[in-house]
Write a structure and sequence with these properties.
By secondary structure, this protein is mainly alpha-helical. It folds into 2 domains: 100 residues, no CATH class; 59 residues, no CATH class. It has a 3-stranded parallel β-sheet. Helix 2 crosses helix 3.
């Protein structure tokens, strides 16, 4: 994963992160980067009790990082149970990675999809008198729609597809983000 996409990795040596989990994360990242290319710098696995990983990502780093909370990743089933729980484990890891990738896509698109997401969710709620998406949080609606499309494919709902497309299109457009590998640290005039 790191070599194939030139990504930095941090926290993959934590206790509880086994080879199977790493393989599933790598597979998900490869699939997502191939389908939705962005200048991703790396992936961090952290640990927290409140759902936000606290593995350090340099504060001065303006690059895009996927930050996975170790608590949000499922425990790999033991060898005897793999046969029965393999698909559920794979899907749970994929879902966690997709949700974080959606957050990074939103940032890569300079949050341009928020207005369209809000309009989509309002229209959905007016047409159906209820919605599965948060009217007050367009970022959450985008993440949920993007995740639904990546999990359900063609079976995803119309609103999910609209939210997914808004996020993917915003991220593929021009961005003001700078690839941190291109940033020179030299002082002007030197």
């Amino acid at each position: 994963m790191a070599a194939g996409h030139s990504l930095e990795t941090r926290g993959f040596d934590r206790e509880g992160i086994d080879v199977r989990t790493v393989r599933e994360i790598a597979s998900a990242i490869d699939r997502l980067l191939t389908k939705y290319p962005i200048p991703l710098r790396g992936i961090v696995i952290g640990e927290s009790g409140d759902g936000s990983a606290n593995e350090p990502v340099p504060q001065h780093d303006i690059a895009l990082w996927i930050v996975l909370d170790q608590a949000a990743l499922p425990q790999s089933p033991g060898a005897a149970r793999r046969r029965w729980f393999g698909r559920g484990f794979e899907r749970a890891v994929f879902t966690a990675v997709v949700r974080e990738y959606a957050r990074v896509l939103d940032r890569a698109g300079d949050f341009r999809a928020h207005h369209q997401a809000w309009e989509t969710v309002v229209t959905d709620s007016l047409n159906s008198r209820r919605t599965n998406y948060d009217l007050l949080d367009p970022a959450a609606a985008l993440i949920d729609g993007f995740t639904e499309v990546n999990l359900r494919g063609k079976r995803a709902g119309k609103t999910a597809k609209l939210l997914h497309d808004a996020l993917a299109n915003a991220a593929s457009g021009p961005s003001t983000l700078v690839d941190s590998t291109d940033v020179s640290l030299a002082r002007p005039g030197r």
